[in-house]
Input
Amino acid sequence: MINTNCELPDCNPPADEIIEILRKCRTIAVVGISPKEARDSNRVAKYLMDKGYEVVPVNPGQREILGKPCFKTLTDIPFPIDMADLFLNPTRVPLVVDQAIEIGVHAIWMQEGVVHNESAQKAGKAGITVVMNKCIKKEHMKMTNY
Output
């Protein structure tokens, strides 16, 4: 039986546009980051930091992750963010996309398993590029192999 609760992305940017996002977006808020080192969100954030990105942890239950201050929401971050990288249950995506629109991010990246087409359309209308159901670490690794 097919799980009808799991959306598939309506569309994603082409590979060259994804590469451009990864080149231009240098300050990345990782929303839903876990303090646990074994979790994908933590490992991906650490990878991005190792590759020279400025990572901003967003998790309301934490004060600090990976040695960086942790913010409760995107709107609590007191400086500009280029991208919001979402490690969230898709049901939580609309609120975070609204916050991303409010603070004016350039891109929203929804990790593997995270798809919300309605929110992606809303973000697109606000001029934000959206990537869904892709791992930013895997895409970055592909980019560095070109």
Q: What stands out?
A: Residues 40-50 form the longest helix (11 residues). Residues 15-144 form a domain with the Rossmann fold fold (CATH 3.40.50.720).
